[in-house]
Amino acid sequence: MLHCQVVGNAVATAKHNSLDGFKMLLCQQLDAEQQPSGTPFIAIDLFGAGMHQKVFVSTDGIGARDIVHDQHSPIRMFIQGIID
Prior knowledge:
This protein is mainly β. The protein has one helix at residues 61-67; strands at 2-10, 23-29, 41-45, 54-58, 78-82. The longest helix has 7 residues, at 61-67.
């Protein structure tokens, strides 16, 4: 699980069919000092997270593919919760 901040929306005119109906957000991992760490990545959002909100992101690809009900989906990360 990664501590991240939402830094943008991901919009795709063409995407894998398994991602239809899922909101995709650009997430930036944060380090212990709340500073950006690494490269931003895309995660599907199940909770309605908004821009600049802090979130927990799961890197469990099997869990992500279970959520979209497609074991061949390219998705690997999903937002697991919003941090208040």
